[in-house]
Design brief:
349 residues; mainly alpha; three-stranded antiparallel sheet; 8% strand; elongated
């Protein structure tokens, strides 16, 4: 292919007479090596896939469906054929779909084979302000690549370009448990949906994906029955007196215990957005619905609940998951005891 046929490619001599090569689009220029450089094709393809993915694969006679070999086509096949996708729970698919939607919106029409390690690293860096999302997006590219080679007969695409792209989210941080000041603000809020969401999350200790699925038929007046979406675990949650008083004051009229403005159930992501935004408006940015699950676990442990009791309410499958709450509660008790000993010591200083 001649240079004149390369879309967005331009070259001109600088003031010293040296030829400069660029990928030029929307008024911006990105340096390229000379066309006879061994890395030219790779760098040009990566820039084209990133900045003009639809132009990257425009071909004559294209049908309405995704063209075989493109990212759009591989995603379509992945959802239709992948055992991993078939076994994924709805909450997991929702997370995967957010990553797939992003990749398809940017690079859907690009041939999968044009993805390079350098290009994947650039995709990661474009999302570096959200490290977890960046790493999950790279992981999704890797999954699609492996699926394409294993199940679609695309062995010729070569090594997985995501395999050696380093993660940037190096440490998992648990969602912080809510302080009492923030809880008090939600208990007094005028918005009945936010208030209901708060009470359900705090006093059942369930994940947002389970709270949005709770229905009136699951509540018999004394307890709420839940089959956790993430693990499939059945939990029977006695209704905390504060939650019972809330139900009595606000009532339960719809099919779902928590309903949207349209009268149907919330999407888990919408619930998270709504609560996180309200937390920020209250002056508590960084708090999320999951922090109320942690608060419930801590409250149970501080009240003296056993490991098995905490697991039975929160639905944890392993001791380690629930033990952290007891360890935190014990530290508080030990700290209080230690301080009392200090105060009554001989010097008291």
């Amino acid at each position: 292919m001649g240079n004149a046929e390369l879309k967005y490619y331009s070259a001109f001599p600088d003031r010293h007479g040296k030829m400069r090569h660029y990928f030029r689009i929307k008024g911006k220029r990105y340096p390229l090596p000379a066309p006879d450089s061994p890395t030219f094709s790779e760098e040009y393809a990566a820039l084209l896939a990133e900045h003009a993915p639809r132009a990257a694969i425009i071909r004559q006679g294209r049908g309405n469906g995704p063209l075989e070999g493109t990212l759009d086509w591989v995603v379509e096949q992945y959802k239709a054929q992948s055992p991993q996708w078939a076994k994924a729970k709805p909450a997991t698919k929702e997370i995967y779909n957010r990553r797939l939607d992003y990749l398809q919106s940017k690079y859907g029409r690009a041939d999968l084979a044009t993805f390079t390690e350098k290009g994947v690293r650039r995709i990661r860096n474009n999302l570096k302000d959200r490290p977890s999302v960046a790493d999950a997006t790279v992981d999704m590219i890797g999954r699609l690549w492996l699926f394409a080679k294993e199940h679609l007969g695309m062995e010729e695409i070569g090594p997985n370009p995501a395999a050696e792209v380093a993660t940037i989210h190096t440490e998992h941080e648990s969602a912080p448990a809510w302080p009492e000041e923030l809880c008090a603000k939600f208990e007094a809020i005028d918005n009945p949906r936010l208030r209901r969401a708060y009470y359900l999350l705090r006093y059942t200790g369930q994940r947002r994906s389970d709270v949005v699925l709770m229905q009136r038929k699951h509540f018999d007046g004394t307890a709420i029955e839940v089959v956790q979406e993430k693990t499939g675990t059945y939990v029977w949650i006695p209704c905390h007196r504060n939650l019972r008083e809330h139900f009595k004051a606000d009532g339960i009229e719809a099919q779902y215990l928590l309903t949207s403005t349209r009268g149907d159930r919330f999407r888990a992501t919408s619930l998270t957005t709504m609560i996180c935004n309200q937390c920020a408006d209250f002056g508590f940015p960084g708090y999320s619905p999951h922090g109320l699950r942690h608060l419930a676990g801590a409250a149970l442990a501080e009240a003296g609940a056993t490991l098995e009791q905490i697991k039975s309410i929160l639905g944890h499958l392993t001791d380690d998951e629930a033990r952290k709450y007891i360890q935190q509660a014990r530290r508080k008790v030990m700290a209080a005891d230690g301080m009392r000993l200090w105060e009554v010591s001989k010097s008291g200083r």
